[in-house]
Amino acid sequence: MAVADPRLLRWSETSEPSNRAEAMSSAEAFARHLAGQRLRERIFRGSTLAAAILLLLLLGGVVVSLLHGAWPAFSRFRLAFITKDVWNPVTDQYGALSAIYGTLVTSALAMIFALPVSFGIAVFLTELAPPWLKRPVGVAIELLAAIPSIIFGIWGLFVLAPALQNSVEPWMDGHLGELPLVGALFRGAPYGIGFLTAGIVLAIMIVPFISAVMRDVFETVPDVLKESGYGLGATTWEVIWRVVVPYSRTGMIGGIMLGLGRALGETMAVTFVIGNAHQISASLLSPGTTISAAIANEFTEATTPLYTSSLIALGVLLFVITFAVIAAARLMLLRLGRRALASA
Amino acid sequence: MIHEPRRAESHGAGGADAGRRFGDGGLNLKPSGRQHVSESLEGGSPVGEVSVADAVFSCRDVSVFYGDKQALKSVTIDVARRQVLAAIGPSGCGKSTFLRCLNRMNDTIPGARVTGTITLDGRDIYSKRQDVAQLRARIGMVFQKPNPFPKSIYDNVAYGPRIHRLARTRADLDDIVFTSLQRAGLWDEVKDRLSSLAIGLSGGQQQRLCIARALAVQPEVILMDEPCSALDPIATAHVEDLIEQLRASYAIVIVTHSMQQAARVSQRTAYFYMGQLIEVGDTDRVFTNPQHRLTEDYITGRFG
Predict the structure, then answer these.
(1) Which of B163, B165, B193 would you mutate first to test chain A, the one with the most A CBs within 10 A?
(2) Do the Cβ atoms of B145 and A224 come within 8 Å?
(3) Residue B80 sits in a domain of what CATH number?
(4) Best label site of A26, A336, B129, B190, fewest CB within 10 Å?
């Protein structure tokens, strides 16, 4: 019986030589053990590979079924589907421009409101908060992120919208509506529901995400860097703006994009407060719709195949927009990295 | 509560406090043959010349607490103008804590508390009216590890002048950057690549850049917290030469783990142990004729 593996040899040598048979059998047991080990390893590797491939298949499946479902609409309306803002189920005419516009406007508004607030929260939590306040505020932010979006929708519709309708919106119409250039943004009847309300609700929803990411990246800034800023006589603001922010630029962009991605795709809360009107209006006070709100609202009413297909085509557009946002973020990071390299 | 610190002489001949000899406390230190002025650890007053005629900093009864832990115990010492004061002692002895009191850097640590008085040119730096940013601008600080900002070499040096608006024109700023880099002995090495990232410099160059960055704010005092601990011997020699030159115009306090370095660069040496200032005096005297047994044990390498 040849024992080729040197490890097996050693195994048999360590056994009592007086009982060779027992030694051989324990060597066989070890060989069996090794074979079992190899098998388990192969199964483990195989299953992780399978999981990874499954992900690719799922993504491919989603893309294929989306495109397949959207095909009738795209082939019928061609480019007009994204350039026209008619959305008329009665005449079976569909153009997605108003939904695209609403999606972009509400997300932009949300970013405008959410960015400064998130930045402030992150700075406060990392640099300024007394230790006893850090945890409560940090936990509160995480809880805010855990609130289901439908709650935000209900709150937006029953609390925020009437409040805006009665106070902020008439004030805007009266005071800001007369401004040159930007006046059109604030002119109009105070409906309560519309782009502005949706933007505010979205902002509240994405603040926890952006501020949590920003807090985490701010915390990665080495203390020695901040201290050398302070050591030069910098104030907290100067240290944050000129040391912390440049250092954590990459991570901050990541957090902002995470928030933007969520704002673009958020459905339920927006559906409650956007007004669901397929129209493009310069005024932020007027109702509109977004891609995801339109899909959620109208899917059950889609009576003709073309209507259904048009809604799926809206989904394709949302997919493209979010993909473009992620790609843009990647590109921006790449360029930042290259600039840092070029100057090195 | 400024009190005249007891001078070494008042301790009387060695062994006066023999009842509280440190060796009885459980730390097994070998008794040395020499007669010491003081061998006590308790009692507060350090051995040696605490005060100087021309003091920049005067620290009186300075204690520092991090939470419940007392890191510095009632330290009384002066820092002289145009002189290098070296703070030596084993790890955790409070020498860095002492340094960080001088520019109120301890304020940035949550839970840190400082008691006693520290005056800079006669004015209490812990008074409520003191603007901390302005104080730190008058006091340059160089850290253990070179820590340039993730910016260009030029922007690193220009950081301080920019936030304090020291330069009116771009030419003024260029001039400050040039002078500071020159004083730090770095100009010739970096003049052709001022716009490249500071991270690309070698460790020694980065540390001299950090010194230039501190000089650019035109400080009166420079604090150095083990500035050479991350540097190789050649870079260390560079920085030590630089300290020697800077001494002509600045008061310098340097914390160092290397007794050789303290002996080379400083005129006065302070020995800290377990949060207390044990002995302070002329460097030559402290190293050749230490008056406290703990100091002698440390500098002769019996412990630490």
Answers:
(1) B163
(2) yes
(3) 3.40.50.300
(4) B129
